[in-house]
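hey all, quick one before standup. I had two proteins in the batch that finished overnight and I want to keep them in one place so we stop losing track of which output belongs to which input. First protein below, input sequence then structure tokens straight from the run.
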Amino acid sequence: MRSDYEKTEKNSDIFSEAYASVINVVISFFTILLILVFPLIYNNSYIDILVFKYQFYWGCVVVMLALCLFFSIIMLVIDSSKNGWERTKLFFSRLLPKNWRKTFCAADIWIIMFWIILVISTLQSDYFYESFWGNEGRYSGLFLLTLYVATYFMISRFWKAKVWILDLFLISGIGVCYVGITDYFRMDILKFRYNIAPEHWDIFTSTIGNINFYTAYIAMILGVAAAWFAITKSQVRAIWCYLCMVICFFAIIMGRSDNAYLALAALFGFLPLILFKSKNGIRRYLLIIATFGTVIQCIDFIKRAYGDTVIGLDSLFEILTNFNGLIYVVAGLWGAYIAFCLMSKYSWNWADPVGPVLVYVWAGFLLLSVLLAVFLMFHANVGGNAKTYGTLGKYLVFNDSWGTNRGYIWRKSFELYRDFKPMHKLFGHGADTFGILTVSKIGAEMPERFENAHNEYLQYFITIGPMGLIAYVTFLGSAVSRMWKSVVKKPYIIGCCFAIICYITQAVVNISVPITSPIMWLLLSIGMAACNQNNIDSPDRAVS
């Protein structure tokens, strides 16, 4: 009896391995396709770039799901005819044990809740068709969001995470950065600008489109490259990631979008919470900061030398490049880096308690920075001291013109929400129906057409309600938290983690579109797949 059981277990292992291998190959192929090809692919320049990428994405995902279903049915038929479903029962008993908490983490539970709320929101919407397809917005309706959720579970549950997938992401990203940097020099190597109006030449770039989407994508590449560089012990990996990081610094600044400030603030603000635990971590962080300052100085030199050729900078980046003492600040940063390297090598005996203390000190600094920002906004708005802050006033004073009229549409969004029916106040107006709402209710008074709230979280608040927003934000927080805790054992997860952190931070002033959001969901799924894996094929180790 015992031998029969062991034989069944062995056969089940073979069955499970064969099934898992087939599914893993299918998922790997389409993951590579989306990571490597999707950001670079286009059809008719910027004319149909959103629609084309949307169709490419959903086509890939639907085919992937169909193939996985097809092979699953074949395996089930074989098992039912030869073994009476025994191996299938054993396989799913391991996949879904009686204690479901061992299988589903907090992020899994919240994403299921998010999807259920999406369905409810769509069913109760006055615009069911538009809410399902998102065709009156940016195609981010129930259909696309369902594909995001399905992809998350397929990759995080059935795919064996590979380190090289992030290398492919960086390779593809560097290609996007290269085109974007050449666009800053008005080279137009892809000949896209012949098909769009001259007034739009400077706000569309690379193979992504609008500069806001472009910098959101670059922020994710930068998150992977900088964080991975900061923590790896492999010299080859460090050199590769450092080069990618430098290119991304150039690309994100030359992208000239305000959402880049938030992504960079998140990167520089949260990295020390991991890096300040060790001397090597602090050394890498100082190198990152010094490199960033050097890139800004180089861009200033470029602007001075090729002022008639390049597009030029504006807003905060322009303030930085115009600062007369910039070169001295950069020299000071490199001096601090060199001094720390010498001090830590020859004269500093690092004690274990020092690292955690520095992390807590930095966390306190972040908290004080947030409180200071809140105070300055209060002082500028409520106190009526806008003129005191000069050019910074346009960032601190919140009015209708704030953030290129974002202040106006944010204010109007809450006014529209007040008039919602009770069900809509819970579950929203319907996924991606924001444009329908604004055109029908305030279309005559809008200074421009707003089909999106230009704030991903406010967009979800209005379209899928506070219930959907809570589920979405909690899902993201749970996923980031789990990845953060897994960095020590699986260092490359830090790349996925900081890519998500950079994305969700800049999303406060940006929108969700099927150009950048699929990449965010893909990286999140890859990170969670690594967390779910007991063993990972990575020779890399974290800096200590």
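OK second protein, same deal, sequence then tokens:
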Amino acid sequence: MDVGAERPEPTGIARWTTRRWVTTGVAASAVLLLILGSLGAWALSTTSRLTDEVVQTRSPALINAVRLEAALVNQETGVRGYGLTGRRDFLTPYTRGRADEKAALKALDGLVAGSGEAEKDLRAVRADVESWQRGLARPVAEASSADAVRITADRAGDGKRLFDEVRVSLSRQQDHLLAARQHAGEDLDTAQRLRNVVFIAIAAVIVVLMCVIFYGLRRGVTGPLTQLGTAARDVGRGQFDRELPATGPADLRQLAHDVESMRVRLVAELARSEEGRALLDQQAEDLRRSNAELEQFAYVASHDLQEPLRKISSFTQLLQRRYGGKLDERADQYISFAVDGANRMQVLINDLLMFSRVGRVHDQRSVSLEDTLASAVDSLSVAMEESGARIEHDPLPDVHGDTGQLTLLWQNLLSNAIKFRAPDRPPHIRVTVREEDDHWRFTVRDNGIGIAPEFREKVFVIFQRLHTREAYPGTGIGLAMCKKTVEFHGGTITVDPVDGDGTSISFTFPQQTSAEAADSEGSLLP
């Protein structure tokens, strides 16, 4: 396809651009929707206003009027009981009723503000309540037991008359508030019916409008876009020789030309990227081979050094036993240095050999971390007994991994916690576990000397030591081996910040899938 070739100019409606189609449709739709929206907004506003009046004013006003009546009845009951018996515990309803009365009156003040009849009723209620309280309630409540009985007897008739007037005022107030509530409810029902009619009409008009818009978009926009999209998907599926048709409005035809130009450039870029990928694959293969050779070299070097080092160690120890104390002090010191250096070299080579085996020699299966932790604790029993260490742990799950490497992981972490203990207290080690998404997070926390924040990354580097060999023996491989083991099993390991003394090391393992568990069970069957 010649992207730059001249094409015949379409006529009529085909000359319309997508923008012209959309602008015309949007303008007509906007005018219609504006009218419909105004009607809907008016209906909603009316309904909302009436709903607020019923829910936030009329109903709460009636409820608080009833609460006011209940509060006054409680006051009358308390005053009458105190006046008849002289017992002050009968004033409890009166005291509680006074607080409820104040709360109800305060609420009614805000709810009936601006309503002439309701405000008038509230003033009448207040006046009658004040007369009753001044004439009977307060004198009785504030008097002593004997005086209260006397006052009640003297003013019994006046007290009943005054409280009956309170009841009449309250009843009149509640009747008026109930009538106002019913009237507002009727207005709300009428507004809701009108709103429903308006929205049904709006929905019908919108359905018709959507049908018109759908037809117009299909005729003027989506048809040409469908053809262009089909061709583009064919190119996306690998048919790079598929030419893209240029049909429809003018801007869509221009888009087709641009996409076709891009397809041509992509074909050329694809050819170059294939060459680059082949080169990258070759470099990746060279890197894998180099890593394998390095691992093999580390294994062979550490393994082959065992025999000559064993001879050096054996002969230096033999030299020490035979000539120790027979030569001068300097000679004994030299022999001791040689024996110590050979022993340390042997330990270092053994650790290096073990480090090189992580990830290279393994037997993947379902592993009980409870069993591996128990094996590690058993291996450290002597060190635990000497140091007085105490180890606690949560119930541990099963994971998919290598039993030996996971046991060695626990052993390294626990032995570090015991080795780097504080001099003034025995080691206390706590192993916890929690579930995080599709991983398990394990935390080994101790109360030892801790790790400074600036060394939290350095401790996982092989042969890195934070203390002298005389203070804390070791080769500096333990945590590096832990890091390699955890990463080989698909997890991460970090030193966490802690509050107070000690060290907290966290590491993660993927949760064992059902397929891995089934494979492990199958491998154990005879």
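Flagging for whoever picks this up: The first strand starts at residue 364 and ends at 368. Residues 24 and 218 are 15 Å apart (CA to CA).
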